[in-house]
Amino acid sequence: MLNFELYNPVNYVFGKGQIEKLNDLVPNNAKILIAYGGGSIFKNGIYDQVKTALPNHNIVEFGGIEPNPRFETLMKAVEIIRAEKIDFILAVGGGSVIDGVKFISAAVNYEGDTVDILRKRILFKDASKVIPFGTVLTLPATGSEMNSGAVVTIDATQEKLTLGGSALFPVFSIVDPTVIISLPKRQLQNGVVDAFTHVMEQYLTYTHDAFLQDRIAESILQTLIEIGPDVVENPSDYKLASNFVWSATMALNGLIQKGVPSDWATHMIGHELTALYEIDHARTLAIIGPNLYKVMFETKKEKLAQYGKRVWNISEGSTEEIAKKAIEKTISFFHTMGMKTKLSENTENYQKTADFIVNRFEERGWKAMGEKQNITLEKVRAIVEMSY
Q1: Rg, C-alpha atoms of the chain
Q2: What's the rounded Cα separation, in Å, for the pair 294 and 173?
């Protein structure tokens, strides 16, 4: 098992009716910026619940944070916080809103060009330099409610880049599974596949000695396979909803990544597809992931076979045969979850995508990726072209 440090200070407040606790969780006398997305919180009643729970606080609102939050939009919120002297931010939304708030929190007091936060992948470790924030989760998928990472898009250059650091954990996160009742089917499908791939990025590497992490990862995968199709059709079923929401959080709250290798190349390539073509994040992962496993088969086949045996209960065949069946099972599951797993099914002008992504990675110096740093630019090209 690899050396690790486990730090997660988030007060995770789970269950029905927990938004009522906001008044006890938000600092007294804080001036709050409530940040949200396209306005669904007004339709599903979440906004009213939040305002009712905070009757005496001085509140400023900022809406319009996009799916795949834009740097340009977030900077408008940064200016509001500076001008209004905001003490605390409350993110009310899904992963995009929470990611956006993490950037806002970091950017307010940042000395220098704020776009460098993304381009230089700045890590924020001093909590006194950021604006504290909490979250009310409305869309489970990214695990952003219990981690310190974020992804933001620079509209001007069509780049989707990351930031993070130990200072960017939420102070608290309220997670009420009943909020998923009003979500569109497409968003629920995306949430399941996003969480599933988060686990795969940390699990589908090579065999190692961290037995417990593997077993926890496998249990999350099995749970998502079991409940995924049903929760999309029956989001009001609390048993399904609560297990889905908790699985999405557990997929990326840091626990299963400790002491083990991790990949993340599927996400790095997938982010480019979203930046280029506005394909939903989860759908880019369903396009790229299985083809990455195929191109990197020789170095991943042992773990693929373990995954096939333990998660999909494939018992017959050689290591290679079980590994290949496991990939096919994964693709089939993605199809069941409503994913179209070819790039050509998601956008029309895809023919030069591999050239564009390889050139961009080369410019950034991203020439060796994956758990063994053996996903070269040639492998990236092969993965993307196989995804056409």
Answers
A1: 20
A2: 38
d(Cα 89, Cα 31) in Å, to the nearest integer?
A: 8
Model pLDDT for residues 375-388, shown as the tens digit of each residue: 999 999 999 999 99
The pTM of the whole model exceeds 0.90? yes
CA distance linking residue 292 with residue 171, whole number of Å: 36
Burial (CB count within 10 angstroms: exposed 0-12, middle 13-18, buried 19+), residue 213: buried
CA-CA distance, 294 to 324, in Å (whole number)?
A: 8
pLDDT band at 6 (very low <50, low <70, confident <90, very high): very high
CA nearest to 40, candidates 231, 200, 227, 183: 183
What would the DSSP string read from start to end of 132-167?
A: -EEEEEEE-SS-GGGSS-EEEEEGGGTEEEEEB-GG
Helix count and strand count (H, E) for the chain: 15, 8
Report yes or no: 98 and 135 within 8 Å, Cβ to Cβ. yes
pLDDT digits (tens, 9 = 90+) for 260-312: 999 999 999 999 999 999 999 999 999 999 999 999 999 999 999 999 999 99
Cα–Cα distance, 180 to 164 (Å, whole number):
27
